Each structure stands twice: as structure tokens, then as C-alpha cells.
Amino acid sequence: MGALAAVAGAAAACGKPITDSPQWREAEKPKGPQMSVSITGPAADATNVPTSAEITYQTEHATSATVTLEDADGKAVDGAMRADGTAWMPAAQLKYGTKYTVTVNATGEEGKTTSASTTFTTMAKPGNLVRITSNIGDGNVVGVGMPLVLRFGRSLPKSLRASVQKRLFAESSPAQEGAWHWFSDSEVHYRPKEFWKAGTKVNFKILTGGVPMGGNWYGRNDVSIEASIGSAVVMTVDNKTHLMTVTKDGKFLRTVPVSLGKARTPSSTGTMVVMEKLRKTVFDTMTNPNPADRYKIDIEFAQRLTWSGQYIHAAPWSEDSQGHVNVSHGCVNVSQNNAAWLFEITKIGDPVTVKGTEEKLQYGNGWTDWSLSWEQYIKGSAIPYEAPVTAQPTPEPTAKPSSAP
To answer: How far is it, in rounded angstroms, from Cα 144 to Cα 50?
Structure first.
């Protein structure tokens, strides 16, 4: 018995300690943080989801993640992450009454992966749809002062402006700083900080299809607009000299004598843009309560500047006054020949600045985006404005003085 114990003890002493075994060492290694991913929106198995749904998720200890969204037929939906990384957005409105499957694949260190998957079903097509219209059509060539104007078919609650604005996207090439500005509960504009650069390509994506707009109303559809900025035709009118200066791409073209609004019906001082061009029209003010302001007259080469009825137009009856004295009812009167010439070279969106009259341009009387300073304009955004980050130039290395030979 003692001999057996001694032998056993010797064997144990000569053998490899159990704590040195590979299995033991592996178990002793501390485990790192566990990678995980969870889908936070839409909720798992959710129904009646708006067709503007975006995918949100959370990861722990992952280095990257990808989102896949498939419809009931297994067809993948195009989309991309928002620039701020807050959500994955489908590239277009989802289909009504459709079941979708979301899968998020996460990757961590050393190539380890994990995933999460869930489903949701979109709502049936609602009966209350809000139409969205734009002042710029797809393929249009417009002036350097042109704002994008979006009108909604009904007033939106102020509390929803931010969520709607988050679905509005503007891109330009070359890139130019710009911002959205709410002019009213049913109208939002976009303009660059400075006039557009001539030749710019602009692309607006209005992803409002299915977006909740209050009171069981939803956006009717998405809108995509690709347009171009034409040459920079700029008109400046000086009430002191009664002259209009016209430039194109920074080069002087012509000085045009004008007659502005007389003291009782002054023209507006401010920067406007051409909103409409009418080769021939009729100005009819016969319902004006003031008999002195009633007239009905054929007009040629009319270019609208305000909703209240201020135009640039041909006025052969005031040619003797043009360049000398103001006799109009608020319009910019020019000669027949000059009106025809201007009509030929201008575009919708070309800017017109009038200086030195008795009356300031009223905010909202036309596309008055340029009547506000940039600081005032960005205050009209429903989302706090952040200027784009521009790359700083790399400083040149300081040359070291060479040593004397």
C-alpha cells in the first residue's frame, strides 16, 4: 500500500502539470468583448409601416456593418446609409402592403461576423395623399438666381417640418454651399449661399413618397429633378440714373434706359428673379378700387418679377420718359427694341436688382430668397444648419537653411 502510494506520488511528480495542458491554457485566456448587432427600426414584425421607412440598428464592438432589404419576392432594395450614419435609406419609396425582410451583417476584429434579421410590413395605400410641385422641371436650364421652390398641397404642422426636410436632398456640380428655408407651412425653398455658378449641374431628390404629413396624410410620391444653370445674365436697375446695366458671365453687354414706378406706385427695391416670361399678354386692372389705376392694355415681352404684378416689359408709350423720369405703375418700363433684346437673352431665374426706390421688396412677394442675408436665410431651416466641412490645404514644409560649404 505504501509502495503503491510512493509510486503514484513519483508518477505525479514526474508527469506534466495539468494546468500546463493546451485545454487549460485556452480556458484561462480572458475572453474579449462580444460583438453584437440589433435592428431598432422598424420594430420586429411591425405592420402598417409608412413606405418612407428607414432602417436603424445598433452594433457593439463591430468595425463595420451592411444592410440588406428584400421585398416579399426576395428582390433587393437599393439604398444607402445617410451621410451622418443615423439610418439606412431606401433609394425610393417602398411598395404599399408589402412584407420586407431586413438583414444587418456586422464585421468585427479578425474578420468575425454576426448578423440580425427581422421583418416588417408596409401600410396599405392611404386615401389622403399630399401632392408636391416644383418650380423647376426635369431638364430645365435656369438662371443663376433660381431657387428651388417646393409647394405642398396642404399645410404641414410645424412639428413635422424637420422630418420632411430630412427627406429633401440637393447636390450640385461643382459643389456649392446651400440651404433649405421654409417660407410658409406649405412652401420650402432651396438656394445657394451665392448665385449659382454658370454651367452648374443641379440634382434634387425629393423623397417625400409615403412621408407622414399630419392628420393621416402622406406624401404622394418621390420627385427627382436634374437641371442646369445657364449663363450668368444679371440685370441691375438704378433708380437714381434711370438705367439698367446688363451683364453676361461678368462681361458688360448693354445699358438700357428705364422708367420705374411713379411716387404713388413705386417699384420695389431689392433682388428679384424672373419668374415668368410672356411674349404677349394683357394687363387688366379694371377691378382696382382706385379709378386712376384702372387700365386694360396689350403688353409685349413681359417678364414677371413679383406676385403683385411688377414686370420688365415693353412700354412704347413711355419711351420719352425712359432714362429720365418714373411714370409706371411699378413695372420696369423699357423700349420695344430693348424689351425684345432682353427677352431673347434671359431665362427664368435670372436675377434683377432694383436700387434706390421708395419701397423695399416685401418678403414673399415673388421668389424673394435673395432679399435675405445668408445669416437670415439659414434661420428658416427646420434643422440646425451646419456649413459643409472643406478640406484645409496642407501647409508647405518650411525649408531649412542650407549650411555654408
So the answer is: 37
What is d(CA 97, CA 122) in angstroms, rounded to the nearest whole number?
5
Catalytic residue among 189, 242, 329, 331: 331
**Catalytic residue flag (residue 14):** no
CB 380 within 8 A of CB 190: no
71-118 pLDDT, tens digit per residue, is 999 999 999 999 999 999 999 999 999 999 999 999 998 889 999 999
CATH code: domain 129-229 is: 2.60.40.3710
Q: Is 176 helix (H, G, I), strand (E, B) or coil?
A: coil
Q: Please tell me if the domain spanning 36-122 has the same topology as the one spanning 129-229.
A: yes
Distance of alpha carbon 6 from alpha carbon 135, whole angstroms: 101
User: Any catalytic annotation for residue 313?
Assistant: yes
Q: What angle do CA 98, 101, 105 make, to 5 degrees?
A: 155
Radius of gyration from C-alpha coordinates of the chain: 33
Which residue among 14, 313, 324, 329 is the active-site one?
313
Task: State how far the Cα of 164 lies from the Cα of 188, in Å rounded to an integer.
Answer: 10
CATH topology of domain 233-363: L,D-transpeptidase catalytic domain-like (2.40.440)
| CA–CA dist 402, 46 (Å, integer) | 73
What integer pLDDT is reported at residue 330 of this predicted model? 95
